[in-house]
Amino acid sequence: MNDNGQKLIGVQELAELLSLPPASVRRYARCGKLPFFKVGRLLRFDVDEVKAAIKEGDGYAISTATSRR
Predict the structure, then answer these.
(1) Using one digit for the tens of pLDDT, what is the confidence trace for 22-47?
(2) Which of the two residues, 67 and 20, has the higher pLDDT score?
(3) How far is it, in rounded angstroms, from Cα 47 to Cα 54?
(4) What CATH class does 8-68 carry?
(5) 25 exposure class (CB count in 10 Å sphere: 0-12, 13-18, 19+)
(6) Checking DSSP bridges between strand 8-9 and strand 37-39, what pairing results, if any?
(7) Strand partners, 46
(8) What are phi and psi of 46, to 5 degrees?
(9) DSSP-H helix ranges across 1-69
(10) Within its chain, how far is the Cα of 9 from the centroid?
(11) Given this model, what pLDDT does residue 54 score?
(12) pLDDT above 50 (res 64)
C-alpha cells in the first residue's frame, strides 16, 4: 500500500488490467508514460494514478496502442 492507503500492483497485474504484454508496461513506465514506484528492483503502480495519466492524455500512446493491432 502507498501512503494514501491505495494498493499498489505489479507489472503483471497492470498488464492484465490494460490488456497489454508485461514488456509493454515496463517500456511505458521506463519512458515516462506510466507513473510508477520502485520497491527495490520491482515496479509498482497505483491504478488510480495510471488511469488518471491515461485519461489526461499523458498515456495517449497506451490507449491507442491496443487499437492499432
Answers:
(1) 999 999 999 999 999 999 999 999 99
(2) 20
(3) 11
(4) mainly alpha
(5) buried
(6) unpaired
(7) 8
(8) -90, 115
(9) 11-18, 22-30, 47-56, 60-65
(10) 9
(11) 86
(12) no
